[in-house]
Design brief:
This protein has 2 domains: about 80 residues, lambda repressor-like DNA-binding domains (434 Repressor (Amino-terminal Domain)), CATH 1.10.260.40; about 45 residues, no CATH class. The protein contains 6 helices and 3 strands. Strand 1 and strand 2 form a beta hairpin. The longest helix has 13 residues.
């Protein structure tokens, strides 16, 4: 069984405080997705988030925060790095305004140059 993350605990707390079910949250963030199973898979995904079995992608975290009307750091604490095994991405909150990002990806040279140019403005 997966270790329950602080993200999972925070999401559960917000859902409980607002009386939201897994189905409610799934509908809030995936309202534009039509599924043949009536959203059962989406409910299952929320359940996996709550158990700590799965961590949501950044785009889903943003949708969650927006749907729940909370700032992103209210869901993802500094102690929970956003690591995607096999993706080459690690994002870790350093404080309320800064995130440390490590990326190990193979991309076309033109894209790499644009990324390097953009990030050079912020490199410390």
């Amino acid at each position: 069984m997966a270790r329950k993350t602080e993200f999972a605990e925070r999401l559960q707390k917000i859902m409980t405080e607002r009386g939201l079910s897994q189905s409610d949250v799934a509908r809030m963030i995936w309202s534009d997705v039509r599924t043949k199973d009536g959203g059962a898979k989406n409910r299952q995904v929320i359940g996996k988030y709550l158990s700590g079995e799965v961590q949501p992608r950044m785009a889903t975290l943003r949708k969650l925060a927006s749907a729940l009307v909370v700032p992103l750091p209210a869901l993802v604490p500094e102690s929970d790095p956003l690591e995607r095994p096999g993706s080459g991405l690690l994002a870790e909150y350093l404080d309320k305004d800064c995130v440390r990002v490590e990326v190990n990806l193979v991309v076309p040279r033109a894209i790499a140059m644009q990324v390097v140019e953009l990030l050079s403005e912020y490199a410390t």
